[in-house]
Amino acid sequence: MLRETIKGLVARAGRSSVGKNLIHAAVLEDSGRARYSSVERWPERLDGFEDLAFLFASNQLSHGIASLQLDEAALLYRLARNVSPEATVAEIGRFKGGSTLLLASALPDGAELWSYDLHVALRADLSGPELDRDLAGALERYGLAVRVHLLVADSRTAEPPPRPCELVFVDGDHSYSGARADYERWRELVASGGNILFHDAVDTRGYGNHYPGVVRLVGEIERDDRELERRPDAGSIAHFVRRG
Ligand SMILES: C[S@@+](CC[C@H](N)C(=O)[O-])C[C@H]1O[C@@H](n2cnc3c(N)ncnc32)[C@H](O)[C@@H]1O
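A: This is the predicted complex of the input protein with S-adenosylmethionine.
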C-alpha cells in the first residue's frame, strides 16, 4: 500500500515540470562521475554494439559516458553501421564523447565522422579540452582515431565536411533558435537518402529528456519540409530521411 502510494507520487512528480527538473539535476549531478578517465575495465575489442555496454548506465538517474538511452543508441549504431564505405557522417555536440565512440565504432572502414563541439561548459568540473583528451585516448585505444575528426567549433559557422553526409546527428544547442539554425544549415548537407536525427526532440511521457524548442522544431519540419520524411522515433530521437 505504502509502496503503491510512493510509486504514484514519484510517477506524478516525474510528469510535472518541477519533478522533471529535479530528475534532470540529478542526472547532471551524477553524470560527472561517468567518464573515460574513470573506466575500470575496458573491453578488449569493439566488435559490436554489445561491447559498448560500458558507455551506458542502467537508468536515467545515473548517466553513463553517453548521454543516450539504449533505444536511441541502438538506432544510431544501426544507421552508422549501414552507411556506405567512404561515407561522411557528422555529429553536432559530443560532450563526453559517448555518441562519438559509438558512431565511430559502428562505421565501416573508410567512412569518416566529423564531430563538432563548442565546448560549452555544461559543468564547471568537466572541461571540454580534458574530455576531448580522454575521448581521443579511447578512440586511439580501439584504432578509431583515424576515422574521426574532433573539431572544436560552432556548428552554425564551422567549415562543413567536404562531402554530403549520409548521417547527421544533431545534439548541440537545444534552444529553439539554436536547433533551428542547425536544421537550416545541416539539412542542406544531408545527402539524398541520408538521415538527419534530432536528440531530445520527442516527449516520450516517461523520464526521458526533451526540450520544448527542439520538440517544436521537429513538429515544424514534419509539417513544412517536403524534402524530409519522418521515420519512427527512437526514445527522444526524431529521425528524418532526405527523399531520394
Ligand atoms: C547533450 S551534449 C551532447 C551529448 C552527446 N551527443 C552524447 O550523446 O553523449 C550537447 C553538447 O553540444 C555542445 N554544443 C552546444 N552548442 C553547440 C554549437 N552551437 N556547436 C557545437 N556544439 C555545441 C555542448 O558543448 C555540449 O557538449
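The CA atoms of residues 170 and 198 lie 5 Å apart. The longest helix spans residues 17-31.
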